[in-house]
Design goal:
Number of domains: 4
CATH architecture of the largest domain: Beta Barrel
Strand order of the largest sheet: 12-13-14-15-16-17-18-19-20-21-22-25-26-27-28-29
Shape: globular
CATH topology of the largest domain: Porin
Number of helices: 13
Largest sheet: 16 strands, antiparallel
Distance between the termini: 54 Å
Strand content: 35-45%
CATH class of the largest domain: Mainly Beta
């Protein structure tokens, strides 16, 4: 039948009967009486689905080509009854065993839609008044392995923290797993934990007992490697913490699996213990009651499936500050036979179609040789010779050198690295000027530049730096995170100073956080701090030009602004900046003209961003929108470099707000947005040519014409937002 009439007796004030058919849908689902559990968790338990928001608008859009119609969710009376059971189960798992759930339904006869309200009477929760951890024989003490007493006491204490709290089944199960895992990682592969629960329903009190059965101890036996075609068995064994004769450890088996899975040449790996897999759980329980058991041997079998040895890949992207960009990679994933990886990477950031006046143009070629360490599975060495050409707001130059990096991996998203880089930069053209100094006017300074200060900066810069950096934190989804925190601190120093043109310490740290708000919205935040400390040869002497000494550090000074920073400004344009002045010789004189600005940077930086990411479900689950508030400050408070005062107000804290759209993809979000400067400086609103003309004519900068249209800044980026 085209329409099937179903009679459903539902509780509602107006009538005892609600009629539904095959076309009936749910418009809205609400809860009443919910206090202990978040409504988002209850919504996740339901199988009855409501219509998406802006349903009518989505139907209209569905008539356009390539836009799908919104999904329909036909109402099922039977599923609604099951949802009541699911909600009761959710409360029981949270310690509410007397929770009552009913529902009320209102029908919109004209639109054939239902509004459902679940009315919840949570009742009293059951509280654990006693939690105990005992061995197989409750009268005798545990035979805790030597040196592990404190670790066991900490675990027991964490399990007993359930006492005095509401019973939560997930916490109780996790404690059971933690107890079993502790023993299985300390030489007892057949350890098991049983639980016993008693309750006093009249008092709403419960008693939870954990009984641990360690079982017999065991040691690792033969370690056999299978399936490796290009990797040597010795190289594989060096990466796993499993050795014949060592006490059995489930944690070591898991680490072996992870360490091998992270190798580029490994497509899949399976670390198994055949004798344990074949053992019977009941036999293990019987064995655990023995007073003394001879150590058993557990052989380990490692089965590896290797990937193709060579791989060619590439990416194509776009960012407003750098225009069209592409990257190509050629990879040999086992060049040494010991899982060493050779990667040749070519990067081209062309500046084509960039939305900024001075796009960042970069071309880079690098060859990276990654070698797994011989003594520590989580430590690897990366040797990278490179050459890079850039033409940006800093200069037009070519840099070449080599870096050696030690990377110690802690876990996913967590690592520590130590890098040493020795390099040389050949500068063909500097891009700079000076508006921040109160001791010298603009034209006088720029004339000095054209007449020889460039020579004092030097056309060749040398680098010899050590950088200690780390990444800590966790994300639920690397491509499109909704929850988690990532922190990236770094410290850099020049050494030995005889091999470097400058001398400094540089501290930098950035943190990104993500917090879900409800089922769909996400609050994303970012904080960035940095400080530069010059020393030695980079400190101006009595006969040195302080402007020249400052500009020699310009490659490592801090800037802010751009697509991934303070989005109301172009890339690196927050804070001190000067007209991009070029000189032409006309007869016996030198004439200056300006086109855009270049950042001067500073010795300190602080910036932040708060962004609310909202779904735009009208156009599908992968399209969203965001609104943001960004802020940043770049400044130099070092009198030794002539940086006193802020005559143009460029070192204060700047703010920007804006909004945009996000398209979520498997490789990360595509973000397009617009930022609006809330408190711009004069250099943000005035054309550089106007500012240069005012300086030449001796007019105050306050008289320069400002354009409010310069408050707006468009941004487009493809890739992760952290």
């Amino acid at each position: 039948m085209a329409w099937l009439l179903l009679g459903l007796v539902l509780a509602r004030p107006a009538s005892g009967q609600v009629w539904v058919d095959a076309g009936t849908e749910v418009r809205d689902i609400r809860f009443e009486g919910v206090r202990a559990l978040p409504e988002t968790r209850l919504h996740e338990r339901l199988q009855t689905r409501q219509r998406a928001s802006a349903y009518g608008f989505r139907v209209a859009l569905g008539k356009l080509p390539f836009i799908p119609d919104p999904a329909r969710h036909a109402f099922s009376p039977l599923e609604l009854q099951r949802d009541v059971v699911r909600l009761r189960d959710a409360y029981a798992a949270a310690g509410f065993f007397t929770t009552q759930v009913r529902y009320e339904v209102r029908r919109d006869d004209e639109k054939n839609l239902l509004d459902i309200t679940f009315v919840v009477d949570e009742g009293r929760p059951l509280v654990l008044t006693e939690v105990t951890v005992t061995g197989p024989d409750s009268l005798s003490a545990f035979a805790v392995p030597e040196g592990e007493q404190k670790s066991w006491e900490r675990l027991e204490g964490s399990v007993r923290k359930q006492q005095g709290r509401r019973l939560i089944l997930d916490d109780a199960r996790k404690a059971q797993e933690d107890l079993s895992r502790w023993w299985r990682s300390r030489g007892y592969p057949r350890a098991s934990v049983s639980t016993r629960f008693r309750s006093d329903t009249a008092r709403f009190e419960g008693y939870l007992a954990y009984r641990v059965h360690p079982g017999s101890s065991a040691r690792f036996g033969e370690v056999r490697v299978e399936g490796n075609r290009t990797m040597s068995a010795a190289a594989i064994r060096r990466r796993i913490p499993v050795h014949t004769g060592d006490p059995y450890s489930a944690l070591a088996v898991e680490k072996a699996q992870l360490n091998l899975q992270e190798l580029d040449i490994v497509r899949s790996v399976d670390v198994v213990t055949p004798t344990l897999a074949a053992s019977d759980a009941s036999a293990a329980a019987r064995d655990s009651t023995a007073a003394a058991v001879v150590d058993s041997v557990v052989p380990v079998r490692i089965r590896i499936l290797e990937a193709d040895r060579r791989l060619v890949s590439g990416d194509l992207g776009y960012v407003t500050d750098g225009g069209l960009s592409s990257e190509a990679r050629w990879i040999n994933r086992n060049i040494t036979g010991a899982a060493g990886t050779l990667t040749v990477t070519g990067l081209a950031q062309t500046g084509w179609l960039a939305l900024t006046d001075d796009p960042d143009v970069r071309y880079r070629l690098a060859v990276a040789l990654k070698l797994p360490a011989a003594f520590e599975p989580r430590l690897s060495t990366v040797l990278t010779p490179f050459i890079e050409h850039r033409d940006d707001t800093q200069d037009r130059s070519t840099k070449y050198g080599i870096s050696t990096t030690l990377v110690y991996r802690l876990r996913q998203f967590e690592s520590v690295s130590l890098d040493y880089q020795i390099a040389r930069r050949n500068v063909y053209e500097y891009h700079f000027g000076d508006l921040t100094s109160g001791d010298i006017d603009l034209l006088t300074f720029l004339t000095q530049v054209s007449q020889g200060m460039l020579d004092s900066l030097g056309s060749t810069l040398r680098y010899s730096t050590f950088t200690l950096a780390g990444t800590v934190g966790r994300l639920d989804d690397p491509a499109n995170p909704r929850r988690g925190v990532i922190v990236r601190p770094a410290i850099q120093v020049t050494a030995p100073n005889s091999m470097s043109s400058t001398a400094y310490w540089r501290l930098d740290a950035a943190a990104n956080g993500f917090l879900p708000l409800g089922r769909f919205a996400v609050l994303a935040s970012r904080v960035s701090l940095g400080r530069l400390f010059p020393f030695g040869k980079s400190i101006p002497g009595p006969d040195d030009n302080v402007q020249t000494m400052f500009l020699q550090l310009r490659d490592v000074t801090f800037t802010a602004g751009g697509t991934g920073d303070v989005r109301g400004w172009e890339n690196r344009m927050v804070g001190p900046k000067v007209p991009d002045v070029r000189f032409e010789t006309v007869g016996d004189s030198i004439e200056a003209h300006a086109d855009g600005y270049v950042p001067l940077g500073g010795f300190a930086r602080a910036s932040f961003s708060v962004e609310l990411q909202l779904p735009l479900r009208v156009l599908g689950p992968n399209l969203g929108t965001h609104v943001f508030l960004d802020g940043g400050r770049v400044w130099t408070d070092d009198a030794r470099f002539g940086m006193q005062g802020d005559p143009q107000g460029q070192e204060r804290l700047f703010f920007a707000t804006g909004a945009g759209f996000d398209l979520r993809t498997p490789v990360g979000p595509i973000k397009i947005g617009v930022g609006y400067k809330l408190n711009p400086s004069i250099t943000d609103l005035a054309a550089s040519s106007e500012l240069l003309r005012a300086a030449a004519e001796g007019r105050p900068f306050d008289e320069v014409h400002r354009k409010n249209s310069r408050r707006w800044q468009w941004h487009l980026a493809i890739g992760a937002s952290y």
